[in-house]
């Protein structure tokens, strides 16, 4: 927009003897100075933004950092790299803009005819259509890549697929905009005719329209796609295929319990004196426990000796929990991946199961990879991940079979970790009774929903920060839309004055210009929303319960309302245009 506005200056410089190269260098230098100021201001503001993020982590999002004290550390190297990188991108944009202006002669520049808003290209290029089709194919291929190629992370497919899908959507919009005039002839009167005229006018300056739609599409994609991955709470921990595996309570004791708490004899041996009626309503799965490093997202350190659980045969045969992936080869193992813990691996590795998020991000391992640690004798052992739990309450532990646990840690007798099945609605009552009855061993119980909520808070915090960046992008898109609205009204003041002289009211003309930009905003919104749906489709198909759809829909509705509100600038700008001076300027230009 600035290049178009300074076109007359460029034409004057060419007319008095400056070479095209000198004119370009002068404009690049001017643009580089402005970009440099912006980069410096942005670099300074980035420290303030980082400080605000830390304040948020210690107040609103304190659950994500576990109460750790966070301090801002500003690295001048990072600041300089960011500022220089941003400056280079902005200067590159200036150079590209000047390439567009350099195609015009000095006479055209002096006359102000460089604006591309004057009409629809007679022969629109079809390259954008080919780019759109190719990008759509690449998007689908990227999303299917993790399913077809072992070891490719879903995140790679999501980002690549999303990027190509956005490019495909914008390419499609680029293909359609110049053709609006041919496909939407103005027929009839009234609101329908006004809408057709508005749609036709969207293609008058297709590049400018595409830029605005692209800004809005990119921000919408981030807000919509990332919002789907926000974790909800456990809706029903009593379901076996949920993240709680059907266990509403998780308990851990300070001292080991040797007796079987599922039998009256075992409870008597453990010193339980409460009425047995309560205990008859629950089912307890005990685990052997080796203390170690936290492997969940609540830890800020990488675990070298993680907590290990030993699962009894009854737990392995029972099954439960949802699995992200496994090395199952038989029908029984596919039905109950826990049976993989009973495998005897030829190279001596120990089969182990862990939570997918903890294994991938905390331990930096994947399915089939080995984690090396020491047993209690100090000998090196290799734990091989044969299955990964999906969004479970067991992020803090790795699970092996009881037989392998006893072999690796023979000195750890008894059970100290318990998962409890309870009747629905009685979780708190049973939790209090268990802590009271087993106070001698220091039993502490936690609701599975609370444990899961603590893990989900971390991921949701990072997603909130990422969505905040998308929100800034949306503000930029809204500002770009306002700038385009004002520029378009300024360029078309003569045309609008002629319409008014022919009998169109200011109100009707304001609605026409507003409709053009409302349609443009909606196109940008759809160009981000549809690719977001494509990018998250594999995840949603695999996990139908994923995503807080209501809140995501609310965000998109707020975006739409804000965008429509921004287009009121067109309405007010059009209403303020003086008819007489505009007609004179139109006549002079003619």
What do these coordinates show?
The chain has 590 residues and is an alpha+beta fold. It contains 23 helices and ten strands. It has helices at residues 2-5, 7-15, 20-58, 76-101, 106-111, 127-148, 154-176, 180-183, 190-201, 206-228, 264-270, 276-280, 313-318, 331-335, 356-362, 402-408, 427-437, 448-491, 493-501, 506-542, 549-566, 568-575, 579-589; strands at 249-257, 283-290, 307-311, 323-326, 350-355, 370-374, 380-389, 397-401, 415-421, 444-447. α10 (206-228) packs parallel to α20 (506-542). The two termini are 23 Å apart. Mean pLDDT is 81; it is low at 116-122.
Q: Which shape, going by the Cα principal axes?
A: elongated
Quaternary class: single chain
What structural class should be given to the helix and strand makeup? alpha+beta
Query: What percent of residues are in strands?
Result: 5-15%
The biggest sheet amounts to:
6 strands, mixed
Mean pLDDT over all positions: 81
Numbering strands along the chain, what is their spatial order in the largest sheet?
A: 8-3-2-9-1-10
User: Compute the gyration radius: what is it?
Assistant: 32 Å
């Amino acid at each position: 927009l600035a290049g178009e506005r300074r076109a007359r200056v460029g034409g004057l410089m060419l007319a008095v003897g400056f070479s095209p190269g000198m004119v370009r260098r002068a404009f690049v230098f001017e643009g580089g100075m402005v970009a440099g100021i912006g980069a410096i201001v942005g670099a300074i503001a980035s420290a303030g933004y980082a400080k605000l993020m830390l304040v948020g982590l210690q107040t609103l999002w304190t659950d994500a950092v576990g109460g750790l004290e966070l301090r801002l550390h500003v690295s001048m190297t990072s600041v300089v790299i960011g500022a220089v990188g941003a400056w280079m991108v902005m200067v590159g944009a200036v150079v590209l803009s000047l390439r567009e202006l350099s195609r015009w002669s000095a006479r055209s520049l002096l006359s102000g005819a460089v604006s591309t808003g004057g009409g629809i290209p007679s022969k629109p290029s079809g390259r954008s259509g080919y780019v759109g089709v190719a990008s759509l194919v690449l998007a689908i291929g990227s999303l299917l890549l993790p399913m077809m190629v072992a070891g490719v992370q879903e995140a790679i497919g999501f980002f690549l697929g999303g990027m190509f899908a956005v490019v495909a959507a914008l390419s499609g919009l680029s293909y359609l905009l110049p053709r609006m005039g041919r496909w939407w002839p103005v027929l009839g009167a009234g609101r329908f005719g006004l809408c057709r005229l508005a749609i036709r006018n969207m293609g008058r300056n297709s590049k400018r329209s595409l830029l605005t739609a692209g800004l809005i599409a990119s921000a919408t994609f981030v807000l919509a796609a990332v919002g789907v991955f926000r974790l909800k709470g456990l809706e029903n921990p009593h379901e076996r295929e949920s993240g709680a595996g059907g266990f509403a309570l998780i308990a851990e004791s300070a001292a080991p319990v040797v007796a079987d708490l599922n039998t009256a004899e075992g409870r008597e041996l453990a010193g339980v004196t409460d009425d047995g009626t309560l205990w008859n309503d629950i089912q307890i799965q005990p685990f052997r426990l080796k203390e170690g490093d936290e492997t969940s997202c609540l830890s800020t350190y990488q675990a070298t000796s993680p907590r290990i659980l030993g699962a009894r045969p009854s737990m392995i045969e029972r099954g439960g929990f949802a699995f992200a992936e496994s090395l199952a080869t038989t029908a029984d193992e596919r039905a109950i991946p826990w049976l993989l813990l009973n495998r005897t691996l030829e190279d001596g590795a120990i089969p182990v199961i862990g939570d997918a998020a903890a294994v991938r991000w905390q331990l930096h391992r994947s399915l089939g990879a080995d984690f090396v640690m020491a047993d209690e004798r100090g000998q090196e052992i290799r734990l091989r991940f044969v299955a990964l739990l999906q969004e479970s309450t067991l992020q803090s532990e790795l699970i092996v079979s009881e037989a392998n646990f006893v072999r690796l840690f023979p000195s750890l007798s008894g059970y100290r970790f318990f998962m409890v099945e309870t009747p629905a609605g009685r979780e708190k009552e049973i939790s209090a009774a268990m802590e009271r009855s087993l106070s001698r061993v220091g039993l502490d119980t936690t609701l599975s929903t609370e444990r899961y909520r603590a893990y989900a808070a971390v991921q949701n915090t990072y997603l909130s920060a990422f969505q905040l960046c998308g929100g800034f992008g949306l503000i930029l898109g809204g500002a770009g839309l306002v700038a385009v609205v004002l520029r378009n009204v300024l360029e078309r003041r003569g045309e609008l004055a002629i319409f008014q002289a022919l009998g169109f009211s200011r109100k009707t003309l304001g609605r026409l210009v507003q409709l053009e930009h409302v349609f443009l905003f909606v196109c940008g919104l759809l160009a981000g929303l549809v690719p977001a749906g494509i990018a998250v489709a594999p995840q949603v198909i695999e996990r139908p319960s994923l995503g807080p759809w209501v809140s995501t829909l609310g965000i998109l509705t707020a975006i739409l309302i804000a965008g429509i509100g921004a287009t009121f600038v067109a309405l007010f700008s059009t209403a303020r245009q003086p008819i007489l001076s505009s007609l004179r300027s139109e006549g002079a230009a003619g």
